[in-house]
Amino acid sequence: xxxxxxxxxxxxxxxxxxxxxxxxxxxxxxxxxxxxxxxxxxxxxxxxxxxxxxxxxxxxxxxxxxxxxxxxxxxxxxxxxxxxxxxxxxxxxxxxxxxxxxxxxxxxxxxxxxxxxxxxxxxxxxxxxxxxxxxxxxxxxxxxxxxxxxxxxxxxxxxxxxxxxxxxxxxxxxxxxxxxxxxxxxxxxxxxxxxxxxxxxxxxxxxxxxxxxxxxxxxxxxxxxxxxxxxxxxxxxxxxxxxxxxxxxxxxxxxxxxxxxxxxxxxxxxxxxxxxxxxxxxxxxxxxxxxxxxxxxxxxxxxxxxxxxxxxxxxxxxxxxxxxxxxxxxxxxxxxxxxxxxxxxx
Length: 346
Description:
- By secondary structure, this protein is α+β, with helices and mostly antiparallel strands.
- It folds into two domains: about 1-45, no CATH class; about 55-345, 3-Layer(bba) Sandwich (YerB-like fold), CATH 3.50.90.
- It is built from four helices and 24 strands.
- The protein has helices at about 1-30, 120-125, 140-145, 180-185; strands at about 35, 40-45, 65-70, 85-90, 95-100, 130-135, 150-155, 165, 175, 205, 215, 220, 230-235, 240-245, 245-250, 260, 260-270, 280-285, 290-295, 300-305, 315-320, 325, 330-335, 345.
- Strands 3, 4, 5, 6, 7, 11, 17, 18, 19, 20, 21 and 23 form a twelve-stranded mixed β-sheet that branches.
- Strand 1 and strand 2 form a beta hairpin.
- The longest helix has 30 residues, at about 1-30.
- About 35% of the residues are buried.
C-alpha cells in the first residue's frame, strides 16, 4: 500500500514537471525577447523579414508637375536630373515641351518654366500632381478651371516666388524652387499628400530584362523637322544618355549628363487647333489605346498604352495583354506624332 502511494506521488510530480516544461516551451517560442539596434526590446515572434519595395514615387507627398521649356535657347534645363518621370509632347512650331513629375525633391532651381498646354493636364491628373506653369494657352486655362486642376501659374506670383535669370533671355528664363511651389500650394489650400499609392507605372525591384525584345542600344524619335530625340545606352551605367537636336542634355548648373533607366514611347495623332489664333497650337488624340514601346537595358518591346479618360491612369501592357513591369528608376515618356519613324540600333 505504501509503495502505491509513493508511485502516485512520483507520478503527480512528473506530470507537474512536464506541464511546467510545456508551458515554458510555449511561452519561450512566442515571447523570446531580443533587442534592436537602439537597445529596445522586441519580440522574436513579431520580427518579420523586410520586403524590398521600389523607391520611385514611393513617398506620401503629393507629386508636382512642372512645365519645362525645351527650345534650343532654353537648354540646358534644371530639374531633369531629379525628375521621377518626364513627359515630352509636341507643341506649336514643331517644338516639344517637357513636363517633370517630382516627388519629395528639394531643388533651388527648376526651369525654364513655360506656359500650359491643355493635353499636358491629362498626365498631371493621372499622376495626382499639382500642376505648375508660367502662362497658359486659352484652352489650358479653360480646362484648368473645368477639370478643377490644382494649378500654380507663375505669372500671378511675386518675383521672389518665380523669377527670371540673367544668363538666358525671355521667354526662356523663368524659374522657381520646390520650396516656393509647396509654400504656394499650402497657401492655396491644395492637398499636399497623396490620395493613394497606385502609381501610373508598375515599378518593381527585381531587374527587368526584356530578353525577347529587339536590340535598342540607340533609340531615335523624330518629333518634327525642329526636334529629334535620341538615346544612347550606357551598358556600364545600365541607363540611357539623352540627346535633343543632337545635343547631349545636361543639368543647367552642374553640367551632369541627363540619363534615364526607362523609355516609354506612345504614338498619338496631333493636329492643329482651329482656334483663330493662327499660332499653330496643337491638340492630341490620346484618350484611347495607343501603340508604343517599352525600352530598358538595351532592349525594346512593343506595347499598348490605354488611357480611358483625361484623369484616368494610362495602363501599359505587352501584346499578350499583361501590364508591364517597369524598372525602378527614372522614366522618359515620349508621346510622339503617330507617323514618327522610330528607329532602334545596335
